[in-house]
Amino acid sequence: MDKKRTINPPVYSPHVKKAVDFTYQNLNEELSLERVTEHLNLNKSYFCKLFKHHMGTTYTKFVNELRIEQGKQLLLETELSILDIALALGYNNPNYFIKAFKQHLGTTPLKYRKERES
């Protein structure tokens, strides 16, 4: 994924920038709140408030949105199975990928792929 989400306020926390950079670099790996706060050496509660303030969303939703966007590209540009795409995006459970995809886009990954192919 080449496009990075814009951080809205002109002055933002270096912690948020580091978290966003870390997320893009590790998008295909396990990205828990614990992992990112450990990487930043920050308290989880403080980080959650800071991230939401600057990004307008929670860290977990941010990660899922990035993964879903990347998943959309993989569905259209490759013939990888849904399982392979889910694993490539860092989801340990393909059912969670399908659920997150459907919540975000209102359709399943398979239906999304089939609708775009025709």
Automatic annotation (TrEMBL):
Residues 17-115 form the HTH araC/xylS-type domain. InterPro entries: Homeodomain-like_sf, HTH_AraC, HTH_AraC-typ_CS, Tscrpt_reg_AraC-type_HTH. SMART domains: HTH_ARAC. SUPFAM superfamilies: Homeodomain-like. GO terms for molecular function: DNA-binding transcription factor activity; sequence-specific DNA binding. Keywords: DNA-binding, Transcription, Transcription regulation. Signal peptide: none annotated. It holds the Pfam family HTH_18. Gene3D superfamilies: Homeodomain-like. PANTHER family: ARAC-FAMILY TRANSCRIPTIONAL REGULATOR, HTH-TYPE TRANSCRIPTIONAL ACTIVATOR RHAS. This is HTH araC/xylS-type domain-containing protein. It comes from Desulfitobacterium hafniense (strain Y51).
